[in-house]
Amino acid sequence: MKRHIYLKMKTVEEARQLFRSRFDPDTFLPPEEILTSAALGRVTAVPVFARLSSPHYHSAAMDGYAVAAEVTFGASQDRPKLLELGRQAFPVNTGNPLPSGTNAVIMVENVHPRDEATIQIEAGAYPWQHVRKVGEDLVAHEMVLPEKTEVTPYALAALLAAGVTRLLVRRRPRVVIIPTGDELISVAEIEAGEVPPGRVIEFNSLMLAALTEQLGALPEVRPIVPDRRQEIRAALAEAVQQGDMVIINAGSSAGTEDYTAQVIAELGEVLVHGVTMMPGKPTILGVVQGKPVMGNPGYPVSAALSFDQFAAPLLSDILGRHLPPRPTVAAQPAQKIPSKAGLEEFIRVTLGKVGERIMATPLPRGAGTITSLVRADGLIRIPAASEGVEAEKSVLTELLLSPELLEQTLVVIGSHDNTLDVLATLLRRHHPDLRLSSAHVGSTGGLLALQNHRAHLGGCHLFDPETGSYNVPYIKRLLPELPLKLINLVHRAQGLMVLPDNPKRIQGFQDLIRPGVQFSNRQRGSGTRILLDYQLAQLGIKPQAIQGYQQEEYTHMAVAVNVLSGAADAGLGIMAAARALGLKFIPVVTERYDLVVPETTFADGRFQKLWAIICSEEFKTTVAAMGGYDTRDTGAVMYEQ
Amino acid sequence: MKRHIYLKMKTVEEARQLFRSRFDPDTFLPPEEILTSAALGRVTAVPVFARLSSPHYHSAAMDGYAVAAEVTFGASQDRPKLLELGRQAFPVNTGNPLPSGTNAVIMVENVHPRDEATIQIEAGAYPWQHVRKVGEDLVAHEMVLPEKTEVTPYALAALLAAGVTRLLVRRRPRVVIIPTGDELISVAEIEAGEVPPGRVIEFNSLMLAALTEQLGALPEVRPIVPDRRQEIRAALAEAVQQGDMVIINAGSSAGTEDYTAQVIAELGEVLVHGVTMMPGKPTILGVVQGKPVMGNPGYPVSAALSFDQFAAPLLSDILGRHLPPRPTVAAQPAQKIPSKAGLEEFIRVTLGKVGERIMATPLPRGAGTITSLVRADGLIRIPAASEGVEAEKSVLTELLLSPELLEQTLVVIGSHDNTLDVLATLLRRHHPDLRLSSAHVGSTGGLLALQNHRAHLGGCHLFDPETGSYNVPYIKRLLPELPLKLINLVHRAQGLMVLPDNPKRIQGFQDLIRPGVQFSNRQRGSGTRILLDYQLAQLGIKPQAIQGYQQEEYTHMAVAVNVLSGAADAGLGIMAAARALGLKFIPVVTERYDLVVPETTFADGRFQKLWAIICSEEFKTTVAAMGGYDTRDTGAVMYEQ
């Protein structure tokens, strides 16, 4: 089934060096001359020298009278001097040229007009007082900007002050991006309608175009090319004619329909096929007609990271920008991060400062989870030789946000609920300087994080069947020593998910034992399963009587999909999962979702702002409008120890 | 002469609060709906929710075969299992939907084809192995982005993955910028020609437009309006109709032709006239028809700083961007910075890390020196109540560059010479990660900086008349204990500057005593004056015999201007000053310009790279081509101790 094999895999560093060594970025494109007034953000191709001095004449720096300083010497309050207007003193406004023979300006405030023709002064002026001398700011022929310098608003002003109205800048490379794949459907096509099963929205090319644009280069996205060798080849041949660099996305792997490496080899040379990085392993780097060509993997995170590692540095060099290394911090993973030896792994993490430590919580690692890049505050690179990072071991983390923001972040770890997003949104609305960062590791994971002081807050909905109560028994067991408050966020409905028209007329748990009703269950130990078993026991329903009780799924969504696809008639889950797939939701029980707030957090002004929002009508109204929630206890302290 | 007085001056903070309190940035402009594909850099107006789940079907995460996991249980190398294609196993490529009834994918590498219809496996698959489940990345109706969030390339991808093809973003405010002033000449007008004396290139409006654009707002620059009240009033009235904010530049002071405050008061309300800041004191903040109007001072640094303090925060709020405070460092001024009490002063400084200290060297403080903003690495704000900052006292400094760059900066302090710019340029060309920052405080200032370990290098051309030699006597006196090397940068010509056609036929010092020849002299103590006096003594010329010997100027350029304007027939100076004003330059003597390199610097790898450039043919050739320089000793060690 394999059509060809990877070249010997390269490390990220080897691959980057090999790719860059084939191009001289300083001569890759000829510079272009543009108007200075349109040069904001462009990069100088050569040093730029002043054409004029600034000022180009001695000019008044204040409103007042220009005089020859020598004439004023000796004036004092006791012995004022009179100056004749038009001969010894000349009215000037700021910026006016000094009349010939004058070399100082007396401020208007310090002058007493005597009559139409005479002024009186009570202090002498020193030579060049309140005068901007020729070349004070810029001297003609002096360098205004060195080469490879970005034209900032201030630089633009300085260039114009120096009479430089046109300048040579680095040309912006045109990057042609070719999406390939039979399964793809363009954004334009889905504009209104649905996406058919088996088809995937083509968004990688637009993401790569945006990354290209952000660097200052000129992206050009081509129409989707189907997985046919001849068509990909033709598209590449055309693209190298028109662009300065080509990115083919994807077909870079070794599957039956992965032609990218083949066509690059046919038209030019493949330098790298396979990099010891994850995500991003099937990256291809090549040259066709002297132009860089990149085969980007198809998963969005892979495509983004291989762009980041290989395309961005080369494009930056061509643009004359020095891409400084990202700032780093020493962060401690909130949990162990295992990693496959042999591949350098790029772990996306959220970051927050808890006490004196910067805690890193890994985001989902799949190459398909683009949200992991959206939510990432940092990147931990685990070397190929390593098998992972232990929890709480300090590890170098590349920052993707400004370091100042880490101080302004409240970290909540635990079970996820959509109302946390509402909370984050309202916090942002009312306190734009604060940030709520949430990591989703389940309720127990949240309590363990608090145990180890890895989070400011825990999000928790743990039902205890023995006492029939929420959260407190678990806190007493796991956090017996920690002074804390338990503050309710919401009560959340769990319910039965069924098809929209509810063909089996299911109304509650008792309907699950009816013949012909197929159930889809959650795995043992999950909150939803504990709740189900408790409710069944309360109702005296025997689990064995329920068809499908033994078949376990690990997420709300998997259960919902089973219902939607007809594999099951009902499943227990939260309203959000039902809504996501357009299922009917029949609430059967509510569970309590609380925030666990250690006293140290409670005393923190940042938390007080958050609490004020939780208690606000705005929060309660917004949450109530989502459906599936009850806010009767929202903001209330349910327990403290 | 004053037409009106300032309102009671406000502090920066008071003025900003007063201005912002008049507008609700969240409702100032209605949001607009745009295509997600065009949303890069825009800011969400409301939270954005997923329209579709991603993936929206269970899909293969690997190339291989889709199977029902249960069927594969028990397979091992010893007891392989056979699966029938099309019934028990289905070939899939990454991204394909799982056929009905399957819940796992076996990678193609782990499958042994037996015949056309059968494959063999040697290990079991676990449920959902190599499968991307529905909603794994995004669940429909879940929040993708909160409000007030910038659309990054990754966010753009996530939105499209979630089927969000249009979204509501904050509208970009239109900012109308009106340049005013009789003395102004537009950039278009000077394109080719010269700038007449008394006229000034109007570049502030383009700088303000660039600053506006950088924030994400839409600038619109109007033609220059002359200093006439009715015309300014008409321009403002029109601008508030068409824009969301108006900036009038300038006429904000209290001079005879400063009408800005008047016309704002006539058409609306003046909130602030006069802020206790320097530069930027004559700032006006007002409201006309519910729209913010700003009167910016005319000096470029004032205009930039008042934009930075008042326009930028308001525009950022309207754009929904939280402008985080600039990062700060504790820096130590390399020299005392006196400041006027009563005004908060914004000192532009260059920064560099010398040893463990970050040294701040003040740049020229005039509000007209736009280059001080171009060159600034940081901003020291001296409170109104303070009379300045002592040298080497730690002071909070707002960073204008990335903190990492401070580690990569070589700091040279001393006398300026244009060849230092060449050096900085070549360093940038060959080592884009390194930076040479130079501060110009004169040769002696440079030696004192080294004495106090405030710089890596000193730039020095001190002639000692007693020994007739350069630099070494001064080093022995000022730095007797410091192990160092003296490395020559260049020999520099000083010469007589005369009009281009040299009407008085001046060839050398002896011509200065001819009757009818007027000389322009430099001040006592300056290097040029020491050189002149030494040369005159050598030649046996009596200073008193030279007309104009007593009239002193403080800069090369002031002397050159005297020659150009006819006030003098000749002056002694460097070739760059003569070239700047198109004067003829008659070399009469060379002086030695050396770098003073302490051993600690010499041992530093960064200096070694700089030295390699100084010694390179490229540097010597470039310097020689400038004229007025001799590179015979360039790079050579002239002395060490």
Automatic annotation (TrEMBL), chains A, B:
Gene3D superfamilies: MoaB/Mog-like domain, MoeA, C-terminal, domain IV, Molybdopterin biosynthesis moea protein, domain 2, Molybdopterin biosynthesis moea protein, domain 3. It comes from the Bacteria. One of its GO terms (biological process) is Mo-molybdopterin cofactor biosynthetic process. Its cofactor is Mg(2+). GO terms for cellular component: cytosol. It catalyses: adenylyl-molybdopterin + molybdate = Mo-molybdopterin + AMP + H(+). One of its GO terms (molecular function) is molybdopterin molybdotransferase activity. Its EC number is 2.10.1.1. Pfam families: MoCF_biosynth, MoeA_C, MoeA_N, PBP_like. Keywords: Magnesium, Metal-binding, Molybdenum, Molybdenum cofactor biosynthesis, Transferase. Residues 176-317 form the MoaB/Mog domain. CDD domains: MoeA. Pathway: Cofactor biosynthesis; molybdopterin biosynthesis. Belongs to the MoeA family. Catalyzes the insertion of molybdate into adenylated molybdopterin with the concomitant release of AMP. PANTHER family: MOLYBDOPTERIN BIOSYNTHESIS PROTEIN, MOLYBDOPTERIN MOLYBDENUMTRANSFERASE. This is Molybdopterin molybdenumtransferase.
